[in-house]
Write a structure and sequence with these properties.
The protein is an all-alpha fold. 63% of the residues lie in helices and 0% in strands.
Length: 101
Amino acid sequence: MRYMLLGDKIETKDLVDLGLVVRVVPQTEIAGSALDLAREIEKGPPLAYAEIKRAAYCSMGDLEAALFREREGQLKLLRTSDVMEGVMAWAQKREPSFQGK
């Protein structure tokens, strides 16, 4: 709120500390860094990502409703093959292969 009201200049370190910036890279490395991040996300669990996004987008406002949506999303995910794949990959100390099922 301070930055919005006072218009203070925000230093790069502050952006990282505030969680507004994930990482800072030299300008010449922006494209490669963005692709690396995209590849990392691509390997992740698509169903869980969808529920995380849904919960985050709907979380503004009523806390009880947000908690209910989060609970429902988790219960839904527990019935997926991706959950079992994640648990098995962790137990076997290997990278998971999520299928979105």
